Amino acid sequence: MSGSAAAIAARAAFGAARLRGARLLRGMLDVLLPPHCLLCEAVVDTQGSLCARCFAGLSFVTEPCCARCGVPFPRAAAAGRGLLCLSCADRPPPFEAARAALRYDAGAQRLILPFKHGDRTEFAGPLARHMARAGAALLERADVLAPVPLHPRRLLARRYNQAALLAARLARLAGKPHIPDLLRRRRATPPLGEAGAAERAKLVAGAFAVSRRGAARIAGRRVLLVDDVLTSGATVGACAEALLAAGAAAVDVLAAARVPDPRLEAGSRRSAGGGGGA
């Protein structure tokens, strides 16, 4: 056997031994410290997973949903022409498609809020796995992934960017390049919590820019923008505009959770009740 062949064989054997050692160590830890559900104290089979009861509390975004922004339709009849919601039919967003894993309800909030505000960064892995399933088509066609950025002051206060953690996990799962500092916030924006769609769009307009190094890496490429919660789409829309202006060929969006459109939900309830709206 030549020296190079022997070296390759030795590296392969070493890698296999490391893998067996890691599995043995995980097995020993699971015996000594049984894995628990991320949200409660129930024992589970795998570290970083949910028990059956907590998993059942999650509502996943499934068809039918808007083909453009991904907002879930409460029923198929709520879909407009081309499977678009009224907002996208009236004013298409700058991104081509957005998808999310979860409906942003009480079940999703049990994961999202501690992850975002409570230093529970270990939630990034399970959330990213759900996102990878929901956005499989977007990940497949993406050339590069990038997170929605935080303003430096907010990043300093929070100590981490939850969208960046999700983007890094997704990039690893999909085997795609990841540029964590592709976008930056040019100015701080106030919390958008109670603002309507129009006000949100006004507040974030022009708030994002692409770094000089990043512009060269996205020229003519499709960018998958990653965020934790998608509400009106104003923030990711402003990011998409900055990316397209910097030379990106197209932008898609993948989020952990999607806030349902209250207008669609209210319309569905009225239709189910058989009553007319005032």
Please compute the radius of gyration using only Cα atoms.
Answer: 21 Å
| Mean pLDDT, all residues | 85
Q: Strand order within the widest sheet?
A: 1-6-5-2
The CATH topology comes to Rossmann fold
Secondary-structure element order, as H and E?
HHHEHHHEHHEHEHEHEH
Indicate the structural class.
alpha/beta
Low-confidence stretches are: none
Q: In the CATH classification, which architecture applies?
A: 3-Layer(aba) Sandwich
Shape: globular
Count of alpha/pi helices: 12
Question: What do you see in this structure?
Answer:
The chain has 278 residues and is an alpha/beta fold. It has a single domain, classed as 3-Layer(aba) Sandwich (Rossmann fold), CATH 3.40.50.2020. 46% of the residues lie in helices and 13% in strands. It has twelve helices and six strands. The strands form two sheets. It has a four-stranded parallel beta sheet. Strands 3-4 form a two-stranded antiparallel ribbon. Strand 5, helix 11 and strand 6 form a beta-alpha-beta unit. Helix 9 packs parallel to helix 11. The longest helix has 30 residues.
Helices and strands, with pairings:
Layout: H1 3-32, H2 52-56, H3 86-90, E1 97-103, H4 106-117, H5 124-134, H6 136-141, E2 144-147, H7 152-158, H8 162-174, E3 183-185, H9 197-204, E4 208-210, H10 212-218, E5 222-230, H11 234-245, E6 250-258, H12 262-273
Parallel strand pairs: 1-6, 2-5, 5-6
Antiparallel strand pairs: 3-4
Helix pairs in contact: 5-8, 9-11
